[in-house]
Every structure is written in C-alpha cells, then in structure tokens.
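pasting for ref
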Amino acid sequence: MGKILPILLALIGVGAGVGAGVMLKPDPAEHGDVADCAPPQTEGGQATPQPVVDEQGQELTPEYVKMNNQFVIPVLKDGNMAALVVLSISLEVTPGGKEATFQREPKLRDAFNQVLFDHANSGGFDGVFTNSNKMVVLRDSLYEVAQKVAGPVVQDILINNIVRQDIQG
C-alpha cells in the first residue's frame, strides 16, 4: 500500500491537470482565428520573414553573409580568464542586401561583440552552453542588434560554429 499511494496520487494529479486543460481551453469561434492576429513565429520567437518576390511573382531566395573573422570571447570566473569561446556567425539577408551588409560589417562586429561579452558575463557560456534555451537567447539578442545596425535587410542569424576551450589555471 505504501508504494502504490504515490503512484495513485501522481495519476490523479495528471488526470486532474488534463481535465482542467480540456475544460479551460478557449473556444476558437469565440476569439476569431488566432493566425489572423499574430505573425508567424520561429522557434526563437522571431517573426517569420515573408518571402521576397520579384515583379513576375517569383520568390527570390535569401542571400547569406558570412562574417569575415571569427569572434573570440573570453569567459571570466572570479576575475580570471576561465575559457575562450570562438564563434563563426553568418547572416541571412534579403535578396540584394549582401553588399549593404558587408558595408556595415565593422558596426555589426562591434555590436555582436558587445552582445557576446554580455552573454558571457551573464553566464551564457557556462555549463551546457549549447542548450537550446541559451542558444535561442543568444541568437535572438544577435538578431535584435543586427536589426538595429543593418535594418530589416537582416532576416536571421546563423551560428555556424561554436567552440569553448577551457583554460587550465
């Protein structure tokens, strides 16, 4: 009896949760179509870019801009360098936006470095730094700053490579 009681309580709790979810689910007819009022979202929370079409209605494929050099970010612990993180970043840009993005590369690198330093200082590169939640936060922060520097030509951020090298002290 002592071993069955916790299992029975867990099953009752799960059943009550499912029942509450079904009972409290909003009626779609009452609130209209949700797809009409919110832009489509990617898993990072960014709005899905709308496809770009030319005069004939042909969908144009996006272009990709690879940042020329890798980003090297120190990870500090107690004021000492504990590790180095090396990243390669590319940007997905609208068709025809490659040249304008390359012209803004120094400003983009500066802004990306600040985001990466802040991410490192907040513990984003500690522990399991490739955890999808940490990567989404990093990618969203990089996307936000890229939009401020380069404008709507930037559609997405791609982290091509990421490596962390711990430093023995």
